[in-house]
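Chapter summary example: a protein plus thymidine-5'-diphosphate.
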Amino acid sequence: MNIVVTGGAGFIGANFVYYELNNHPEDRIICIDSLTYAGNLSSLEEALKNPNFRFIKADITDKAAVEKMFEEEHPDIVINFAAESHVDRSVEDPGLFLRTNILGTQTLMDACRKYGIKRYHQVSTDEVYGDLPLDRPDLFFHEDTPIHTSSPYSASKASADLLVLAYARTFKLPVSITRCSNNYGPYHFPEKLIPLMISRALADESLPVYGTGENVRDWLYVEDHCAAIDLVARKGREGEVYNVGGHNERTNLEVVKTILRQLGKPESLITYVKDRPGHDQRYAIDPTKIHTELGWLPKTTFDEGIKRTIQWYLDNEKWWKDILAGDYQNYYEKMYGNRGNA
Ligand code: NAD
Ligand code: TYD
């Protein structure tokens, strides 16, 4: 099969490219990515040596480029990872998020309609459900939890999901959607919580925890997410949404303290900074549907996954140091420079 992976130079996309090349060597993987600040071709260095892999630098909102790829590659499955993905950036510049996350999804699906496709799979997020209160640990996101978004990022992802389901109903496009909780692992851009804290702790720099650090995220090792997407895109029921998560809830403070402990660094590095506006309190997924229908279960515990992740950042210093040395410095100064203490 020919499988198109959009956004394959980003965090989860790159991990997915390797997952596919390793687990389905009979398939051809075509990656489309416009290489925004979050896209890193060096993450695909090994894949680029594989004759079953092709990289195309293109924007998913560029209809001509997307159609050219369809004419050349005749994809069987399109899996859409490409997105603007950072909540804090969406607070600064919502328009970019609407363009890529919504119009990009439309452009891809229109090409799927025009040329035909076996499956269009949308990689979505649990953030479309909004958040859960901290004092109700009994509540979880189910597939039929109402869409209720908080940030321009989550609103753009929810809009895309609605469009995907509308294309299924109106045009009978064979679609599926996965909504996953927070991922962590190799190739994670150091603006996100876990890699940011690892890279700063290694440099003995302050660790900016938003608000009180009590917000809860449901962490999933990225390879487990890749396995779930692979299953749903190939075997999931058409027109269905599947939640993906592993019951690995941690407060931000617990995550940061775990990283400090593993690196042998002092907790005095923690600095509480002004909270994110509209900050979601708790995310927690109920993955019963994907487990009962497709037999998916996460394989990696948080303790094991965080160890592996830290080791990856220790072994691949050049990857993240190159990022930190670039335009990222301006980003950090802009976002955190005058944030003050909480
Ligand atoms: P990322 O920001 O690391 O990577 C996004 C990739 O998309 C980059 O390579 C970037 O260059 C590319 N891209 C952006 N705009 C593009 C455009 N217009 N055309 C082509 N390529 C473009 O993101 P990620 O963390 O790997 O997330 C991938 C997907 O998974 C996103 O759709 C995100 O919403 C979803 N998701 C992420 C998480 C998480 O914890 N990171 C959890 C659930 C769902
Ligand atoms: P993030 O990695 O940005 O993912 P998301 O917002 O999609 O959940 O943030 C994870 C949590 O960590 C979130 O509650 C915000 C918090 N956070 C901090 O406390 N400090 C930081 O510097 C960052 C980037 C995030």
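Key point: The mean pLDDT is 96.
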